[in-house]
Design goal:
Layout (H helix, E strand, L loop, with lengths): L2 H12 L7 H42 L7 H18 L6 H16 L5 H4 L4 E8 L2 E6 L2 E4 L7 H14 L10 E5 L5 E5 L9 E5 L8 H6 L5 H12 L4 E5 L5 H8 L9 E5 L11 E5 L13 H8 L6 E4 L6 H9 L7 E5 L3 H13 L7 H11 L2 E7 L5 E13 L2 E16 L2 E8 L5 H8 L20
Parallel strand pairs: 7-11, 7-12, 8-9, 8-10, 10-11
Antiparallel strand pairs: 1-2, 1-6, 2-3, 4-5, 5-6, 12-13, 13-14, 14-15
Helix pairs in contact: 1-2, 2-4, 3-4, 10-11, 12-13
Amino acid sequence: MREEDVRAVRSLFSRRPASAPRSVQKSAADAQGGAAAGVEKRADDYVELKAQLHGRMIADLQEDGLLGADPSQLESVVEDWVADVLATETLPLNENERQRLAHELTEEATGLGPLGPLLADPAITDILVNGHDQVFVERFGRLEEADVRFADDDHLRRMIERLALTVGRRIDQSSPMVDMRLADGSRVNATIPPVSIDGPTLSIRRFGRNRLRSTDVIKLRMFSEPMWTVLSAAVRGRRNILLSGGTGAGKSTLLGIMAEAIPGDERIVTIEDTAELVLDQEHVVRLETRPPNVEGSGRISARDLLVNCLRMRPSRIIVGEVRSGEALDMLQAMNTGHEGGLCTVHANSTRDALARLETMVLMAGADLPSRAIREQISSALDLVVHVRRYEDGVRRIASISEVTGIESGTPLLQDIFVFRVTGQARGRVKGQFEATGIVPRFVHDEREAGREIPLELFAAPGSTGPNT
């Protein structure tokens, strides 16, 4: 029985006339305590019985090799299994509890069990399970604890193992971590002991059912219309753009939005650890990395995919996230005719993003001097866009910077647009997007090619015009 049912019964038994004699009040109190204790015991019995049946059901499905079957096929098998148990075994349940048990066991085998209601809430973007009795969600950019629990660690672990089987992955003591993608595109990461000391953990990064468009995020104040005009012109003009930001800052969302500006007649190849991007264009090839198998072989890295995609005649290469040695191959591709590349990197600022790129190039094992790497970076990249999640939970573009070259061995950056914070009001960060007055070099190239970009977009507040 759910907690709210227990509270309802308690509330029912707590009602009594205000003028009742003390002896009657005492009797009512005793009755209330006894009834509440009985309800709680029945709820505990129900949970225990459900856990026992769930364990048996998972064991039977695994024995028959059906645990990783197609969900539509699995649902009918589970329904038959539950119906058979309810018909052949004497269970201390009333009719309502039997129906509830059948529904919950089916959901446990085909869905995400207790997490089902959370996945049905479109406002939730992250589900973080720290243990069987601690579940947090991110809603509107803020973390809060959810009123959801698993029966025990075994219950949580069984669900993780079932999820891994459904996508052809495996998680056990020899391979206690798994990264996977659900059917709706949500990213899932799970760990079990011995790597997670306090029990199994589960992290689900969800993506909206309706893809965000540039018009949507302008209304949400992620960036301004002048900024989008410049960014879309840079994408159409085949400029190489690096997106930087922290975890959950909105890099992937912004990457998908910027890809809107890619012409529909170009061949796009995307490389991701877990495929997330949904593009409008028809000519799209999606590549996804693969972790090693149980024997430790069969791994396909982003670098392997990047080298291979150069043989696929791509018009555009989009790298979901640069993490390691693939940075070197990406920079070389950008410097050898593969223009218009888009990629993301974890960093705290535009300057940090370039420093991280240099570090990742060294991870490729190439014995290159720092100056050569920095020259590659400054030659390959045109723009660096930094996106940040602010204290109010809103994701905004913090700055758009142009890479202007290299001086004294250091890549030069100049800000084109920035978000100026002016204060806070009622927990909301207040500020405005401003141009710095600097016109990026590619704008002059675009204007010479007959593609007009109004110079007024770059005028700083209070100035008479941009610095041309």
